[in-house]
Structure formats: structure tokens, C-alpha cells
Amino acid sequence: MSFELNKVLIERFSRQIVLKNIGIVGQRKILNSKVLIIGAGGLGCSVAEFLTRAGVGTIGIIDYDLVNLSNIHRQSLYNEKDLEKLKVKVSQEKLKLINSQVKINIYKQKINYKNFSKIIQNYEYIVDGSDNFETKFLINDFSLRFKKNLITGAISKFDGHIFSFNFLKKSSPCLRCFYQEEKISNDIFNCEFDGVLGTVAGIVGTMQANEVLKQILNIGQNLNGFILILDLLNLNFRKVRLMKKKKCLCN
User: Fold this and answer.
1) Is the distance from CB of 146 to CB of 184 less than 8 angstroms?
2) CB 152 within 8 Å of CB 128
3) CA 131 centroid distance within chain
4) How many Å apart are CA 175 and CA 35, to the nearest integer?
């Protein structure tokens, strides 16, 4: 499916098109891009919403969970009327109200080593909004295997981490290079155990969406090979280079 700019789309995206780093050519790239989001929670909602508003043509969303009351304070696509409904279905409906022309593919399943390979091949950019390290490593490994661009986010309390990996480049490290322990508890960066301020999810998710758009457009500085560490309680931000681990899948 290929999108072309017409008068309506030019008006819709006029504030982006006027930017010299985007223009008509850049907006056409956005319209014809394909992004897969794993997790329709605090991070995934913000990512999906802002990529939809920016004009990304095809968005895939993977999640098997239902909306519950504790989600609503940080998961911006849901409200009280959505309780006990499938997150992917609600997300699809809300996003189509924002931009009726975007193609939203939903996957009501938990990803694993059997089903993920069929899904990931249809997308260029992968966004990890999951909340456990078993899933994060699976996403990392398949993105590496299929040479995808991966933007990973993690949140807890008042803190956020954002990683970006361009696996088209052999020099790129991966998530396993940072978390070098053989086994990592899923309690780390887990909102259920540690709690999280709702705005932290919105900020980190929006920044992930921003990184996706920069990669699509190939503009500005990016986080490829870096980790951005955000302490939003004390407003401390650090960008740290991530080195490749010698004995790692990415070598």
C-alpha cells in the first residue's frame, strides 16, 4: 500500500511539511513507513498516538491484555468506558478517529519464538513498549536477526531508559550488551512492582516516537548505540555510549 500526497494530506501535515528537514519528500517517507509497536501500555499508547498524528502509513500493535482501571492514569488511549476491553481493539478504534487513513494492524497475542518471525518481517521499524525482560530480549533477538531498526523504552517510578539500535549496521550493539547478566528479574522496570508517575510514560513514549520519525527521515542526531537515561524527578538526563559485548549475539 503506497500513499501519495494530495491537498487534504498536505493541509493535515502542513506544520510538518514546512520544516526544512521534512518537506514533501520527508512527509512522503513518513506516509509510506511501517512501524510495529509491541505493547499497548503506557509507552505503546503514546508511541502509537503520535506516529498516527505524524502520518505513519502502517502501524502494527501487539498486545493480548485487557484494559483495567490501574492502566488509565498512564495509558493515554483508554478511558473508563474501555474497561475489560482488548487493548489492541480499543487502540485501533481510537487511532482511526485521529487519522482515518492510517492502516492499523492488530495482533491479539503474546509474542513468542514461533509467531513473532511472521509478524516482524512486515515492518521496517520496531518499537519495544513491553514491561518485562523476557519479551525485551525476544524483541531484541528477532530485530537483530531480521536487521530491523529497534527503539526500546523502559520506565519505572520517575525514571526512563531509551535505547536505539540500527541492526542494518554490523557495528551496532544490542540490548544484551547493556544487560549483561544471564538472568534479569522481570521486577526491574516493572510498573506493577515499582510504580510509575503517569507523565513519565507519556514523556518516554513520545521520545520513542520522535526517534522513530528521525530514523524514517534520516535527520538529526540519533541514539543508535547509545542509551538515554532520564531522571524526571530531578531533571537529570544522560546520554551514554553502549559498547558491544565480545560474546554476544550481535557479533
Assistant:
1) no
2) yes
3) 12
4) 19
In angstroms, the CA 161 to CA 153 distance is 6
Q: And the C-alpha cell for 189?
A: 522496570
Q: Is 184 helix (H, G, I), strand (E, B) or coil?
A: coil
In 51-73, which positions are buried (b, 16+ CB within 10 angstroms) versus exposed (e)? Answer: bbbbbbbbbbbbbeeebeeebbe
Question: Would you give the DSSP letter of residue 232?
Answer: T
Instruction: Kindly report the pTM of this predicted structure.
Output: 0.94
- CA distances for 73 relative to 79, 116, 180, 209, angstroms: 9, 30, 33, 20
What CATH number should be reported for the domain holding residue 134? 3.40.50.720
pLDDT digits (tens, 9 = 90+) for 131-143: 998 999 999 999 9
DSSP letter at 71 equals G
Distance of alpha carbon 135 from alpha carbon 11, whole angstroms: 39
Domain of residue 222 covers 13-241
Task: Pull the grid cell for residue 76.
Answer: 493515554
Q: How confident is the model at residue 185 (pLDDT cuts 50, 70, 90)?
A: low
Contact 177, 152 (CB under 8 A): no
* Cα separation, 205 vs 135, whole angstroms: 17
Determine the residue type at 105.
Answer: N
Q: Please count the structural domains in the chain.
A: 1
Please give the C-alpha separations between residue 109 and each of 5, 37, 114, 119, 126, in angstroms, as whole numbers.
Answer: 34, 13, 12, 11, 17
What is the helix (H) or strand (E) element at residue 58, kind and residue range?
strand 58-62
- How far is it, in rounded angstroms, from Cα 90 to Cα 102? 15
Q: Single out the residue of 185, 180, 171 nearest to residue 226, CA to CA.
A: 171
* Residue 250 belongs to some domain of the structure: no
